[in-house]
Amino acid sequence: MYQATAQSVREGLVERWNDTYAHFHKENPKQAYYLSMEYLQGRALTNAIGNMGLTGEYSEALRSLGYTLEDVMSVERNAGLGNGGLGRLASCFLDSIATLDLPAWGYGLRYKYGLFKQGVDKATGEQLEYADDWLEVGNPWEVARPQVSYPISFYGKVVNGKWAPGKQVRAVAYDSPIPGYKTRNCISLRMWDAQPSAVEFDLAAFNASDYETSMGPTNLASMLCAVLYPGDGTREGKALRLSQQYMLCSASVQDILARWKERGNSDWSKLHEKVAIQMNDTHPTLAAPELMRILMDDEGLSWDDAWAVTKKTVAYTNHTVMPEALEKWPLDLVEELLPRHMEIIKRIDEEFIASAAKAKAAKAAKKDDKKKDDKKKKESEEEKPAMVRMANLCCISGMAINGVAAIHSEIVKDFTFNDFYKLFPEKFQNKTNGVTPRRWLAFCNPQLSAVITKWVGNDKWVTDTDELRKLAEHATNPELQAEWKAAKLARKKICKDYIKKVTDIDVPIDSMFDIQVKRIHEYKRQFLNILGIIYRYKQMKAMTPEERAKCVPRVCIFGGKAYATYTQAKRIVRLINNVGSVVNNDPEIGDLLKVVFVPDYNVSLAETLIPASELSQHISTAGTEASGTSNMKFQMNGCLIIGTLDGANVEIRECVGDDNFFLFGITDPEVEPARAERAAGKFVPDARFTETLEYVRSGVFGDKFEELLGSLEGNEGFGRGDYFLVGKDFASYLEAQERVDVAYADSMGWTESSIISTAFSGKFNSDRTIDQYAKEIWGIKPCTVPERK
Ligand code: CRA
Fold first, then answer.
1. Matching SUPFAM superfamilies, A to Z (predicted)?
2. What's the pTM?
3. 48 and 176 assigned to the same domain
4. Ligand 1 contact, 629 CB (< 6 A)
């Protein structure tokens, strides 16, 4: 029934899709291309019928056949071709691009296996990983286009200024339709699959039974699209990752230029008037040198002409300031894999250095500055082996460089890329992230949406989220409050049933649902959350039954995957699970505290958890989380946030007001001094912190978690000096949690804050973000597909 439903929906989409392509072709507008190694599309069915405005019709039709839409849609596999926020952002952007009728497309890779499926070992609490064979039963949303295919070359050498490649595969297009909401526009997400190139297949070797030789190209092709982010600990792993990135860039650039020609364009100096390429983080950086190579080596442009137009065509979004995530590749590896590109990169580098030196001389630099710059230059020259730093290449080639939240964009200018900022301040921008209100409110939370539509007076808020503000006028109205609470309760019930089904834990529905879901990472500080829970548990244990009865009951829910080789993150998962086993089975505590780790966090699980949330935790060390996007989804769904002044939290708090945000922790400028204080041995932890660590060490939760606790201490043994400052923020975190408890006890006040949260979430609509990209970076305008006559 799922397959049949999906096929019928697809049929409806294909007409819009073809019309959109034909219309763009006819109008020949400037078009933007979003290049991303990750997309987290989640399920497509509900979204497609919702965007087409056919949810009622499909529910009805399925019911008449003896099915429910909920059951049918839940059969669909999640398309999980990404890690976390960056991948989901790309998917939200596609929804907004289509909804705003913008001429833009997405490009990605069609990985055979998505991000791993996560399980939890019942006995040890450890994370288990399984391959996610998401294509196992086929994907009704994609259309294979074997006629759209490009050669992708690797290795070999440069002969007379041109590349004579050593190996080749073919990139084949698989397209998925992305319908906009209440519009006929339907754009494409084109994902490349790697196929062996027939010319390379050694038939003679095969017939001589030398299968290893003959299957070489086939194996290379299947490796290229096997998984997202293969381990890159070895040189082979690095070569594979870089090859994947190159395949995305080369296939996409070839395709973009072919379309540009197909639409009758021919003046290369005006390419940027028709094409903008957005590089989603540094993974697609090679788009710039690939464009240069094609323009010069295939189209015959001079270096200067090719460079002039490339610089106006590509743009770069930075998503992280964590130094270990700023990609660099060994120069000799790039040289071996992509010899012609390495030549181009070297020349870009040389010309940049020369022009920067000139600019500096012209400024007759202030002496201090010069000293600092000289020192930096020395450091970079001394790096061995030599590296190609992708973000630097992006900053030099890009027409625009943007961060993803206001505070992050400032950090990018002041620290991460300060040298580049000084040279080209005009390139630097901010584009605060957003999320699509269709998937993340209208479709995932029909209960709350119905209440919103009633009180706002219409459903225009589904696109124009500023309309949500109208809710604020009624935030204290008992009638709205009652409906609001009923909607929340309905969602908590659905969530409770889901938790029971997957973990067998019974959670009480009248408790506060407190949720932290995101990748498990030390900087996101799930560790701080669980230590806070441990402290709470310890306190409760010490209370008399009368005192205990006054506690605000909580269900603390965690979800998220730890990267397979990230040991410390995996220990955090184990600690959470072990704490859960003890707390959830403690008869003294009963329903007052539950700790749940819901396995296999993905888009669909988020759609179940977020509508049920009352409190959510966004508690990264200040200055480390570029933006966060789940904070926006929680806010839209009337959830209050406990958080630090980090990423988009800062702007969310500005919107909802400090009364409706539980702020704690040190600020970004206080972080380095706090680290210095620790390093100098001057930090005195709060007694509650020390007690909590001792409590874990006493073995209450089975294992003593020495390696984990040690990371919060000195620099000896396991000690890493608490780099993310869990100890520093612990007291402030506990105090904020006390404020949460007090606030929750006042049910009317809490509901008012919840309504206010939704009411002022309008800014975090990805339509707003995309509108800014379109106007301020891409220079594209809506191109609306007319109704069929
Ligand atoms: N991990 C940031 O850390 C941000 C998203 C989307 C991240 C998040 O704070 O919300 O990007 N960065 O902008 C990233 O992937 C490579 O860097 C993320 O998802």
1. UDP-Glycosyltransferase/glycogen phosphorylase
2. 0.97
3. yes
4. yes
